[in-house]
Amino acid sequence: MNMRGLIRYRLLQSQFTKLQLDSIWLWLLPFICFLLFLLLILVQAKGRNDSTRPKSFSCGNFTDLRFPYSTPTQPDCGIMPMSGCDAKPFPRIQLVPGGEWYYALEMHNSSVWIGDTKLQTTLRQHKCQAFNKNFSLPNSPFMSFHMININNFFKCISSSNNTRNITQKKSDHFAGYNMYNGCEGFSIYYKLSEDVDEYIGADNLPTNCSLIRLPIHSSHGDLFNWLGPEILVEWKLTDECNECHYGGGQCQTDKTNKFSCHKDAKTPTSSTDQRKETTGRNMVGQILGTGSKICLIAAMYSYYRIFMHII
């Protein structure tokens, strides 16, 4: 073999070796890219799992609902759970744990209009069973309620055992009050809240009388026209509960009915820890994302080199 042939042979051998290396690299590159993409997906999935609390959600016709409202699928993320979010037009809401469910008619940042359909039917039919209802919302160590359009009514049972002394005591207590005696077995004493000049508590009532609280929507007509099935409820959270929630905890009460901030073992102890963890996760995600892009560019370049060798 002459010198020219030897040089040509060496050149072809070198090109063949490079082609082999490019082919091996081309086979390894998809595997490396696959690993990078898989790691990137795992990091993103962990970020979603670590932040399962939605900042806001939609339910029924309402959008951008936030804490203390909670989603049907994640009731522990808030204090007032919603249900029937696919129902139109109004979903339902439970204001206190274990309490009744009401229709949410209007929802705001710190108040909600609720509707009681059973009371609505009873009032429409002028049934005296409406006075068996009594609306009250117990306050907790971290949340208080105020029902705006609630009025006090006093239900006094009529009995043949009522003595003249008991009857006189009722007349003295409810002087200046309106009386409704259209129901069999009891009478109702009432007046508008702004007209009440003396507080009559449930512990300062005549015998056989009890305090009930019902919503009003008018001051005209008879008693049934006064009453309505809708209540405007305002609520207020304590600063401790807000700090607890946004720090990753849940507002609860302990055995002594005192405020307690419950946190899972996996929950970061502070918002600073959360920021550090999120920053680290974002940095890893950026590195993996950049590596995946470089991997894709390298694959395209390798294909280009092999193609040029072939032609």
Structure description:
By secondary structure, the protein is an alpha+beta fold. The protein starts with a helix and ends with a helix. The protein is about 40% helix and about 25% strand. Helix 1 packs antiparallel against helix 6.
Q: How are the elements arranged and paired?
A:
Layout: H1 3-50, E1 57-59, E2 62-65, E3 69-70, E4 80-83, E5 92-94, E6 101-107, E7 111-115, H2 117-124, E8 143-147, E9 150-157, H3 164-173, E10 178-180, E11 186-190, E12 209-215, H4 223-226, E13 230-237, H5 239-246, E14 250-253, E15 259-262, H6 271-310
Parallel strand pairs: 3-4
Antiparallel strand pairs: 1-2, 4-5, 5-6, 6-7, 7-13, 8-13, 9-11, 9-12, 10-11, 14-15
Helix pairs in contact: 1-6
Descriptive keywords:
38% helix; 23% strand; 15 strands; membrane; 311 residues; ATP-binding; transmembrane; kinase activity; 7-stranded mixed beta sheet; elongated; 4-stranded antiparallel beta sheet; alpha+beta
Share of helix, binned: 25-40%
Terminal Cα separation, in Å?
Answer: 27 Å
Number of strands: 15
| Strand order in the largest sheet | 3-4-5-6-7-13-8
**How big is the Rg?**
36 Å
Question: How many strands, which pairing sense, and closed or not: the largest β-sheet?
Answer: 7 strands, mixed
List low-pLDDT spans: 47-51, 267-278
> SSE order, as H and E?
HEEEEEEEHEEHEEEHEHEEH
Q: What's the number of helices?
A: 6
GO molecular function: ATP binding; kinase activity
Transmembrane segments: 24-43
Keywords: ATP-binding, Membrane, Nucleotide-binding, Transmembrane, Transmembrane helix
